[in-house]
């Protein structure tokens, strides 16, 4: 990623008085880092917006502080925004050593269109919108772009292991098997079916009559007397 320059001045105005700086188009900031003494600085808000649009939080900014001979390699971190206007009101510059690895959360974006979403009304679920990596500052990717045009069926997904990056330079700190984005079948309301009523057992026509005819009846009297004579 190309490195860009940003001019800065040491800041003398501190505390609540920085409101005057913001009204004048100046953005209060601070520089911090490992073995670096914290330093309040200020930059032009317009200049910072242009630089940040090119670098984001992962690109190196060469911060040129007035009266300092060397530029400072920094990453733009911890942007504080006004809750009403959404404008940046303060920024932290993390000064890094270009020879030491840093841990940074890299944003994830999608590209293309999923056939499952377009043709089957599937729901696209973004499980991760960023992933942490470890790398030298100059090797940090600006962002990860995942192509979702290959997601054609329900429950298909793209995993961390599918993110394209030179893993010899960039170490993924997330589980390689973790899901980044997936498509799911839309949840449909299950219509409640009324409980089925079991039909009462109906006797076969004529069965009851056949069963009762002669059932429990004694044989005729003449038949009884004839049987008694034979037995005697």
Automatic annotation (TrEMBL):
InterPro entries linked to this entry:
Rbsml_bL25/Gln-tRNA_synth_N, Ribosomal_bL25/Gln-tRNA_synth, Ribosomal_bL25_b-dom, Ribosomal_bL25_C, Ribosomal_bL25_long, Ribosomal_L25_dom, Ribosomal_uL5_bac-type
Q: Which residues form the Large ribosomal subunit protein bL25 beta domain?
A: 101-187
Q: Where is the composition biased (Low complexity)?
A: 194-205
Functional description taken from the UniProt entry = This is one of the proteins that binds to the 5S RNA in the ribosome where it forms part of the central protuberance.
Q: What is this protein called?
A: Large ribosomal subunit protein bL25
What segments bear the compositional bias annotation Basic and acidic residues?
208-232
Q: Which gene name does the record give?
A: rplY
Give the top-rank taxon of the lineage listed in the UniProt record for this protein. Answer: Bacteria
